[in-house]
Amino acid sequence: MPPVSPELISPRSPRVLAARRLAKRNFRGKERLFLAEGPQAVREAAGHADTLVELFATVETAERYADIIGEARTAGARIHLASEQVIEDISTTVTPQGLVGVCRFLDTPFEEILERRPRLVAVLAHVRDPGNAGTVLRCADAAGAEAVVLTDASVDLYNPKAVRASVGSLFHLPVAVGVPVEQAIDGLKAAGVRILAADGAGDRDLDEELDKGTMGGPTAWVFGNEAWGLPEETRALADAVVRVPIHGKAESLNLATAAAVCLYASARVQRASGGCRSVTGS
Question: Which of 87, 123, 175, 192 could bridge 222 with an S-S bond, Cβ 3.0-4.6 Å?
Fold first, then answer.
């Protein structure tokens, strides 16, 4: 069982400096490590095999979440009891929760995702806002999607805001990163997955697609940029461009809300009789 380190007081400690650098993308990529903050994220990381490397915690937080500390030790993580100042220096939040984990990258090779023959996939084609990326990942997890793909035109999956916005879902399902959009769509099509581009200017209506009964098979939803949606060349790669109908006076839906609507629409049909999932299967 890894030993508990003496309390870290100095923000200049080599371990603290190394963890703090992970707030920057280039250091995350170099070390293939990222930060997970707060009790829920740390618990998820501890439960994910060979993921949690180190855990920084204040004495008070370690006592409050003794079960998480125990899970982290069992997972092989090195535990550092740290001062509040150290936690504040490592944390990327305004109000740190007293627990910051250092985790190994989790991304899955795109080819491996294809080999699993996924039935519901979210593709983030041009998503630049980390909060939106993490929230769409959370929506995909909640809807029972079997994979998420972030193209090379999208934000870094391990951006601290994206990790927080996923609320632990980052640890739940396979995610491929840095895949060129054409490769992602071509690969999914070859795996028998129908590609639906979600766009407010789509020529097909989600309600109409549901009424036609065309959404029961394996499906990948492609989501675009928060401000300008999907470029024409990406929409042209899809089997259909679908808009979420606006029945009231709202001008539009934000990205995460639209993603939730689309993913749940597919999930419901796939779980119904005649879909590619059973009613109770997942």
Answer: 123
Strand extents, DSSP E, the chain: 4-8, 33-37, 52-57, 78-82, 99-104, 120-124, 147-151, 175-179, 194-198, 204-205, 219-223, 240-243
Nearest to 46, CA basis, from 69, 65, 19, 22 = 69
Q: What is the DSSP string of 32-89?
A: TEEEEESHHHHHHHHHSTTTEEEEEE-HHHHHHTHHHHHHHHHTTPEEEEE-HHHHHH
Q: Which DSSP string corresponds to 239-257?
A: SEEEE----SS-S---HHH
- According to DSSP, residue 276 is labeled S
The residues, ordered by sequence, that sit 6+ positions from 248 with a Cβ below 8 Å of its Cβ are none
* Contact in structure between 174 and 201 (CB atoms under 8 Å): no
- E strand or H helix at 266: helix 255-271
Q: pTM (2 decimals)?
A: 0.89
User: What is the average pLDDT across 262-277?
Assistant: 80
219 pLDDT band, cuts 50/70/90, is very high
